[in-house]
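Recall that a protein's primary structure is simply its ordered list of amino acids. Everything else, from secondary elements to tertiary packing, is in principle encoded there. The following example makes that idea concrete.
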Amino acid sequence: VQTCALPILKTLQDNASEYEHSEEASSDGDMLTMNISALVQETPIDLWTKENMTVKIGLKNFGDTVDKELIGIKVSETKSFEVTYPEDYAKEDVAGKLVSFSVTVVDVRKKQLPPLDDAFAEKVSNKKHSTFTDFKESLKTELDARAKSASEEKLRVELLDKISEDSKMDIPNGMIESEIDNDIRQYEQQIRQSGGNLQQYLNVIGQSDQQFREQLRPNAEKRVKSTLILDAIIEKESITVSDEEIKEEVKKLLPHADTEEKINQEMSRLNLDGFKKMLRQRKAVTFIVENAKISK
């Protein structure tokens, strides 16, 4: 197995693992089903006193100390112990108190990793590969492509940043303010999805509206400058985008658009002018990379 593919394979193997019953003693990472009681001065803690409760050892559902006590016990065994919780513990009804636990183990399940074989390759690739060798080679090819793409993107960003730094231009303040407005709208949308609003967010971080705008200004100004540079290159080099190039990009972005009819349907939903501008700017960046003189 190539070294570069090992972390991905380990993650895929872990995701495909299953927990199976074991008669062995529990250990860190096991799934433990237990009947548990938790008392504070003989009074049960409702959420912690249950039958057939399943926990994963190591997630600290009851704190780090309890997890340590749950290690080393087998099915049908009972164990009693006490834990004193700190004053600042998150669960208020046990904070600063001595809790008496009694645990009877109903089931211990241990993680079983699948072997890295043909069956594994077929499963994790959704039957695209029937042998592990083919899957491994495909994975390596994909990782190499990602690494190349990331390296090229890094180069594009660095070159554009360098050109921006060296370019002297007066940027209309209105363009920068408009870019900041766009940033704020995106922030507002993200915060609303989390159930809050922008003003609440600003209160939390201790900033006024104007302070927040000034925080966004440097990056907004940088993006506007980059856009103006790319637009100038597009005009000077007469960079255009053909209908075929647009259709090819739509197919890349939307694989289900696999017929001319579906492609045209997707194109009708696009902000075509904005999409064309994005593709022209991408070609302008490619022009910069291809014509750059890079010193090593």
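The chain is about 55% helix and 15% strand. The first helix runs from residue 6 to 15.
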